Amino acid sequence: MTQLPQQLINGVWQGAALALFAMGYTLVFGVLNVVNLAHGATFMWGAFIAFVCVTKLNLSLWYSIPVAMIGAGFMGVLLDRLAFKPLRSLTAGSLVMWAGFLVLLTGMLGDWSPGTRRVVILSGSVVLLAGLIQDFRSVRPLRQREVPHLAPMISSIGATFILVSLAMGEFGAQVSRFPMNLFPIKPYQLTSNAVISPIQALVLVLSLTLMIILHLLIKRTQMGRAIRGIAWSERTSRLLGINVDFVIAQTFFISGALAGAAGVLLGLAFNRLEPTMGHEVELAGLTVIIVGGMGSIGGAALAAFLVGMIRVLSVAYIDSSFRDAFVFGLLILVLLIRPSGMFGRSKVSRA
Amino acid sequence: MLLVEDLHTSYGSIAALKGVSFRVPEGSVVAMVGANGAGKSTTVNTISGLLAPNKGSVRFQGVEIGGRRPDIVASLGLIQVPEGRQVLGSLSVEENLLLGAYTRRDSEITQDLKKIYDRFHQLSVRRKQLSDSLSGGEQQMLALGRALMARPKLLMLDEPSLGLAPLVVNEVFKIISSLREQTTILVIEQNARKALQVADFAYVMEGGKIVREGPASQLQDDPAIVEAYLGKKL
Predict the structure, then answer these.
(1) Domain with A270 in it
(2) Tell me, what's the ipTM?
(3) Fewer C-beta neighbours within 10 Å, C or N terminus of chain A?
(4) What are the chain A neighbours of B44 within 8 Å (beta carbons)?
(5) Cβ–Cβ of B88/A239 closer than 8 Å?
(6) In 3D, which of A50, A39, A51 has the Cα closest to residue A79?
């Protein structure tokens, strides 16, 4: 048991990064009642955006992390406008966006000469952007309706495939790594038998900082109140003058940025980037938000530390092949005792 | 201030409004009474932009707003207090009030918050509580206070007395009449007697149409109205 302090530290920093991922996940669920299964793909892209910043653009890590967060945030907004919003309210802009997006995809994945490729990608992006602007400014949608929960979920699975394929096309299926000299590797000695590497400390500090910022944003600002208001009742929020679709876009931005941050941080900590890296965190994140109570941000944060700890401890003391079994064991246990999760509101009380 | 002309709204193929026309002059309290299903709520929801009209016009301060998005309508100062209060239950009382001022960008929001607490003392006592935990009467006060936080030019109250105890209903109407110096009011009510007491002018709706209109005091004494909506006094 001498390695216990060390394992606890590992559990905490991994839990913190998982919390970033899960809080954005549950935030979107709270507002839209939809599980955005493409959240893991956004996570992966966050890591790769930082990778491009560092390796191709020679930016320092301190710039790369915010750039990755902003990039992943905009990816979240695009995801909403392409995969989710057209199902709720379809505008002419949505159709234009899709046309632009298809051109963009053809440009990125097709077999073109570099010059043609650039032109196709550029024109696709311009059309996409024009559609996005129209969609944001649209006053009256072509069609507005309530959709069953399943449709947006399937559509987010589709988005995952597209985002993963794009990453495969761009970076290849093999593992990419950040340059070794990016970060000091000499670990800090915490106690006689526990260390934390600088990168792990960075993950922990940055995750906790972002968690506090998110908490203040949600609890203290008008935007945060609007997000929670929509989660309770979209209709009433509209009557209060809240532009619901715009606030949903803001929510997707925050959610995407948090996923992106988690992606960069875990990508750095394990120094292992691959297009499929989102799948595993997707499942862990799903467990976290169910255990925490769907839609509960605090619950997700707490459950993330719990799941992070269980993963680390089960690998250290039992067997790495049993890791997921313990995580899903926790899921089943919580569902048996409290079906709405640790901090979930049961739907009955809302009647 | 508000001018509605020949408004038609339908739910799918079922016509709910069949040509509704009325006006709410600035500074007045106008009541719209009628039985359940007469189309009163459909009327306010069409004005608020929650429903799109098939035909007809809604002009607010000279601007056509028919079919506009609800948040745009609200930001013009046309605020609806929806039927059944609809407080945002997972938010505290104070957060509900602050969200009422969502469309405002001025610096007097905290001042207004204080005014609301002075007017509705119970709310100030419960400011940190989740609004879900309030009683029906308190929730109605909160819904009113939240609407006032927007500094409405026209306040539309949809069934403010619905589901409240008689004593609380009296209190709600007392508040409504005290609001008349502050804003123009359109009140939708099944409780015709109460509504006619506070209103200057009233419209009677039936089957998606306005069937009668006149000064509220006059309608109160109209034998046909008394029989249909007020019941005989014993």
Answers:
(1) 4-91+141-174+198-337
(2) 0.93
(3) C
(4) none
(5) no
(6) A39
